[in-house]
Amino acid sequence: MLNVIQHHKQQEWRILASTPATPIWFVLLAATCYSWWLGVGHYHSTHLLTITVMSIAFGKAALIGYFFMELREAPPILRTIFTVWVMVIWTATLSVYLFY
Amino acid sequence: MLVAEKNKATALDRLLFGAGGGHVPGEWGIWVFIFGDMTWYCLMCVTYMTDRVKHIAEFNRAAGTLHHDIAAVNMLLLLTSSLAVAYAVRAVRHGIRGRLVSALMAVAVTCGLAFVVNKAYEYQSMWHAGYTPIGGQAFYMWYYILTWVHLTHLIGGIFVLRFMYYVSKRSPLEPGDIRSMECCASFWHAVDLLWVILFPLLYLVR
What we know:
With 100 residues, chain A is mainly alpha-helical. In chain A, 81% of the residues lie in helices and 0% in strands.
């Protein structure tokens, strides 16, 4: 009886984990740790650092949108609005930093 | 003519909404709200960037006084919370109910509350060190405004998660209930997404 319950629970977890959101979560954690490691200890302006950490951030934002918010399976118009939104804010932030 | 018009409309529909229709997470209305909310917040972030490049040395020095570790841990907490919420939505769609969904929602809420506790400690520590929004330094004013606005979203989000938990308990679960849960989840992911942008912008950019 206990085995049946355990088997049932394992099956439930298997269903939940069998989504691309699971490996994406690991990618997001790794990207966060990498940005954290890159960013700590700098007190002077470095363009390369800023471009890298902001690009990682907007890449993470896109992954959250596509896989956690499920926009990957959403109607193209919604997915396109989101993709354009991420690219516009990313471009605006870096353009201000580099050229303002 | 009429048939041609009809085919044109169908082609446009396909272009806009996809051949299979695609699934809108939640409702269209929640996406209007989410995009509006994220856009004005990100406009504030871009405005912060314009101020930052004008006083780059001052902002770099001030950013070095922030608690990077707390902010990074908060990022990990929100990502974990988002995964738990995504799992909870997936569970109810697959007809999985009961303690598993409750446990996932508990993980999500606990991570949200841990974020609030960390943030309160960070504010208290910064305040005691004399880094206040009224100290005359533009960086700290921006820091408090941006993080406070995000925190209010997050606290609101915790109540939204509480509502989502309440909906997940309904029996039987109607399609409208699942849509409500998707709306709640989308809002919570948006809170996560804003911190993804804010974390490097305030703490890491130099």
